[in-house]
Amino acid sequence: KDDEFCAAHLASLCESAYKEYKEPMSLGQMVNYADLPRVMIENIMPNHFGVSLDTDAIERIWDVNSVYSKGAAGKGKAGAWKEDSSEKEQMASESVKEACR
After folding, report:
1. Which of 8, 37, 53, 88 has the fewest CB atoms within 10 Å of its CB?
2. pTM
3. Cα–Cα dist 4/96, whole Å
4. Quick one: pLDDT at residue 82?
5. Is 80 helix (H, G, I), strand (E, B) or coil?
6. 57-64 LR contacts (CB < 8 Å, sep 24+)
7. Cis peptide, bond prior to residue 37, ω within 30 of zero
8. Under a CB-based contact definition with an 8 Å cutoff, are residues 29 and 42 in contact?
9. DSSP symbol at 93
10. pLDDT per residue over 10-68, tens digit each?
11. What are phi and psi of 28, to 5 degrees?
12. 44: how many CB neighbours lie within 10 A of its CB?
């Protein structure tokens, strides 16, 4: 049951995002998670938002993206961000993986 709920929730989030993206007046832009934050610096900020980034701004983006976003004080997760998508995928049950396909 938990696996089905998890997969249904993820599907709902993805379907909603894609539906909004496909709207004729949508300003959304699909981004591959693996390309962050580089794509923010090279494409989204200058081309989508029309914002020029100087060296200081680029350094701040890299600095902010080097910290674990859910690592608030007292939660025991503080520290540098590290790629863990593969690890999380390996932890998922086969039924979750199948439901996500």
Report:
1. 88
2. 0.62
3. 7
4. 66
5. strand
6. 61/37, 62/37, 64/37
7. yes
8. no
9. -
10. 889 999 999 999 999 998 899 998 898 999 999 999 999 999 999 999 999 998 887 76
11. -70, 160
12. 16
pLDDT at 1 over 90: no
Q: How far is CA 87 from the centre of its chain?
A: 16
Are residues 68 and 78 in contact, defined by beta-carbon separation less than 8 angstroms? yes
Beta partners for 42? none
Beta bridge partners of 67: 80
The residue among 34 and 97 whose pLDDT is bigger is 34
Compute the distance between CA of residue 38 and CA of residue 9 in angstroms, rounded to an integer. 29
C-alpha 68/C-alpha 79 separation (Å) is 6
Q: Is pLDDT above 80 for 79?
A: no
More confident residue, 86 or 14: 14
First to last CA, the chain: 17
